[in-house]
Every structure is written in C-alpha cells, then in structure tokens.
Amino acid sequence: MSLSDGLILLLVVNGWAFNVVAMKIGMMELPPLLMLALRFMVVAAVLVPFNPIRVQQVPLLILLAFTFGFIHFALLMLGMRYTDAGSAAVLVQMGTPAAMVLAAIVLKEPLGWRQLCGVGLALLGVMVLSGSPALSSWKGPILLLISAAGWACTNIIVKRASPPPALAMTGWLSLFAIPLAGFSSWLCETDQLTLLMAAGWRGWLGVLYSAFGSSLIAYSLWYWLVKRYPVNQILPWSLLSPALAVVMGGLVLGESLDPVKLSGAALIVGGILLSILRRRG
Question: What is the pLDDT of residue 280?
Fold first, then answer.
C-alpha cells in the first residue's frame, strides 16, 4: 500500500472513531432518535438526487432501511445513552462475528477453528467489558448487541441480493429510514421542536459530522480503497476504530479508562482480528 493510501486509511478509521464521540456530544442537546432522523435527512438530500435507482430495488432498500438504518443505527444511539462512547464503539463491533455466524447458518459458509476461537474470545470480551464501572446497567450492552445484530443481518441480505452502488444504497436507505426514525422520535421523545430550535454547536456537530464525516466522506473513501486493495488487507485496519474511540472518549469526553474496560475491549478487538485474518501460505 502506498503511503498516501495508508494515510487515507488512517483518516477513515479516525473518522469512524470520532463519529461515536460526535454523536455522544450531540446527544447533550438533542434526543438520539431526532438526531438520527436529521442525519438521514441530510444524507438523503445530498445523495438521492444524484443516484437514481430502479423500481425493482425499492423493496430491498426498504428492508435495509429497517435492518441497517433503524435497527443498527437507532439502537446504537439509544444504547449510547447508557454507555460511554468508547464502550459503545467496541460493543457494536460484535456485528463482525455475528455476521460470520449468520453466514455459516444462512449461506452455509464454513467456520474454521480460527474463526470459532475468535468469536469465543470476542464473546468473552463482552462479558469482561460488561463488568466495567463505565457500564452502569445492562440496558446499554443489550441494545448495542442488538444493533450489532442488525448490522450483521444487513451484510447477509446484501450478500444474497443485488443492491445498487454504495452511494445510491446509502442515500435511498437513508430516505426510507426517515419515517422510521421520525415516528419513533414522535412516539418516544418529547419537546423535539423546542430542543431543535435551542440546539447549539454540540447538537449540530452530532448531526452534521455523522452525516458528512462518517456516512459520506469516510465510507466513500473506504469503498474507494476496497476497490484498490484486497479486502483482507484493509479490513483488519477497521479494528483500529473502536480502539481509537476508547482513547478519544477518554481525551475528549473525560471517560474512564479503567483496567476492566481496557481488558474487555482488547479481548473483543483481538477476537475479531483472529476471526478475520486468514492464514498465509
């Protein structure tokens, strides 16, 4: 990999890591589901007019709007209300081993001993991380693990279907997810208009960074790199993101970096790394 592409890759994983911190900052002023609906509106407004799709692709995109746009993102943001940013970033990475297990069940893709050991190690990390003083209750971890399962299901659906190109999928998925996030906000949250009018830089940082910094810039650069290099060469780099989020949470938000939290995070990241790395030779 060239030096310039390596720097772009580092920019991407840092962008993903800070996204969790930005959303946590945004929730200081805006409720999570309202912030998510606003994020989808921004992404859809930027991408949908320039990325047409076929009518036949609409049912698939509506399904993805539910599994990815709603289950994954909505529960991620709700789970972050009960956890710190670093723990949320690590726990949601459980979507990777969950996707591997689902692929073995649904797609009949074999799981080797290395993958099984990695999944087991990551699950052990979840149990260790759940004992950290940073997690005040089980609500956060449960919501985040269901969020990870939504991401895993999305990967299986995309694998079996023929989705549109990445930017078109992101834009239209966001458009179809707006009613889900908006209705959920109306049902579960209060004073949305008042909070929106009173929101300052913190609230809009959460909305705009997650829309542009994460959804548009980071993911676009990631898919550009995927086209240039083997997936197995760059995929392990994505595991830097939760590790960096733990550090950023401590530096930016003053979150604790207790030994239990760090040990659980290391086990989860290590288990996922063991699962996705292929033996050479």
Answer: 44
- Token duo for residue 230: 């083997």
* Pair 87, 188: CB distance under 8 Å: no
Inter-axis angle of helices 139-160 and 95-106, nearest 10: 50
Q: Cβ–Cβ contacts within 10 Å for residue 105, how many?
A: 10
The pLDDT score that the predictor gives to residue 191 is: 93
Of residues 80, 90, 83, 91, the one with CA closest to residue 23: 80
- The gap between the terminal CA atoms of the chain, to the nearest Å, is 20
Q: Which two tokens stand for residue 93?
A: 């990475």
Cα dihedral 114, 120, 124, 130 sign? positive
Predicted structure pTM score = 0.82
Write out the two tokens for 190: 């209060």
Contact between 178 and 36 under an 8 Å Cβ cutoff? The reply is no
Q: Which parts of the chain sit beneath pLDDT 50?
A: 280-281
Distance, in Å, from the CA atom of 232 to the CA atom of 251, rounded to the nearest integer, reads 31
Q: Token pair for residue 60?
A: 């698939």
The length of the chain in residues reads 281
3-state secondary structure of 151: helix
